[in-house]
Write a structure and sequence with these properties.
Largest sheet of chain B: 10 strands, antiparallel
Largest sheet of chain A: 9 strands, antiparallel
Number of strands of chain A: 13
Order of helices and strands of chain B: EEEEEEEEEEEEEE
Number of strands of chain B: 14
Helix content of chain A: under 10%
Distance between the termini of chain A: 7 Å
Order of helices and strands of chain A: EEEEEEEEEEEEE
Oligomer: heterodimer
Structural class of chain B: mainly beta
Largest interface: A-B, 36 and 35 residues
Chain lengths: ~180, ~180
């Protein structure tokens, strides 16, 4: 069935500094989807970021060009808006790309989302991605983020890493291939 | 089997609301609404949830709401945050659309994702995208709603309805990642 998902791998962060998928990203699938469930940061105001690798995870730092739009609303109704976030996009840099901004670390707070990565095995095109994330932000408030971009590199991507900007984190990340 | 699994299909025809009462067994649920038609013009499609042991569909939410619209006439064409349609720790049914219906062919359709409702540790996140035909001033409205249900009690039921009148159409419930 076209568009069907196949669960390829599950990574569980449990007070972990990072989570990596270093196998299963190849030419088998044209699209990969990563669902992130109950991501909880140990450190207050840590971000959750990601990057990809072309050498199986030995190093991460591919040039990224990206955009990020965000809707937010504070629990106390003190503010709500939709805006482009110039501070979190990337302009052909090798930084880790922000997925979730400024997480609360209260015991009941968690964040979720999905990241789509297209044809990572391509060696003649850039590699596109987009994500939707829901973040329980310190404040507290809800952030609803839409991030998109491309890896500006013609080498095949074969690994991906998720990590907090500081401290450790918890949660499950599921990697699917799209048939 | 790891793809989205179709769990239930509801085909309301002039029903006051549509409830799904089994939110167990999966980490992520998706509700797909197709050709949802209100009996009264200009209605908001809404949803709420009930927590285990709760008193009904009245759980506390903090949410965001933004939309893009364009009139059939070609005027309009805006992207905006809707400050009157979000909630800050509110217990009302959360709007998913703003003014569906009016003409016989005026409906809405879209998806709502709900993450790990069985969790007894974390708040429960959701995000949705519903498109509607706003027929009193004919236009498309592309509505993006997101938020968290601010409870650590398991969510056991979800209910969809229009603001007034009845609902006709199809709502399908899917599950992803067996838990």
């Amino acid at each position: 069935m076209s568009g069907a998902l196949k669960l390829l791998s599950t990574q569980t962060a449990s007070n972990s500094a990072s989570v990596e998928f270093t196998s299963g990203i190849d030419s088998t699938y044209d699209e990969y989807v990563f669902y992130m469930v109950d991501i909880h940061a140990e450190t207050l105001t840590a971000d959750i970021d990601f990057q990809c690798s072309t050498n199986g995870g030995s190093s991460y730092g591919i040039n990224i060009v990206s955009s990020i739009s965000m809707a937010y609303h504070q629990e106390n109704d003190g503010g709500a808006a939709l805006s482009y976030q110039t501070g979190f996009d990337e302009a052909n840099t090798t930084n880790f790309q922000l997925l979730m901004y400024y997480l609360d670390n209260a015991a009941d707070t968690a964040s979720v989302g999905e990241l789509h990565l297209f044809r990572p095995s391509s060696t003649d095109r850039v590699k596109h991605f987009y994500s939707t994330t829901n973040v329980h932000v310190a404040g507290p408030r809800i952030d609803n983020n839409y991030i998109a971009g491309y890896f500006n590199n013609l080498s095949a991507i074969n690994a991906i890493k998720f990590q907090p900007s500081s401290g450790n984190f918890y949660g499950n990340i599921y990697m699917f291939g799209v048939k | 089997m790891s793809d989205w699994k179709l769990l239930n299909t509801s085909t309301p025809s002039g029903a006051s609301s549509v409830s799904f009462t089994d939110l167990t067994g999966y980490k992520i649920f998706k509700f797909v609404g197709i050709d949802l038609f209100p009996s009264t013009a200009g209605q908001e499609l809404k949803f709420q949830v009930n927590a285990s042991g709760g008193s009904g569909f009245n759980e506390t939410m903090t949410t965001t709401f933004f939309d893009a619209d364009n009139l059939e006439s070609g005027s309009g064409g805006t992207l905006q945050y809707e400050a009157n349609d979000d909630q800050a720790q509110g217990t009302a049914y959360q709007k998913l659309t703003r003014a569906t219906g009016g003409d016989a062919d005026a409906t809405c359709a879209g998806e709502l994702f709900l993450f790990n409702p069985a969790s007894t540790t974390y708040v429960k996140h959701f995000y949705s995208r519903f498109n509607e035909y706003f027929s009193s001033s004919p236009r498309t409205l592309d509505n993006f709603v997101a938020g968290y249900i601010n409870t650590t009690t398991a969510i056991t039921e979800i209910d969809f309805k229009f603001n007034t009148g009845t609902i006709t159409g199809v709502i399908k419930q899917y599950g992803l990642v067996a838990s």
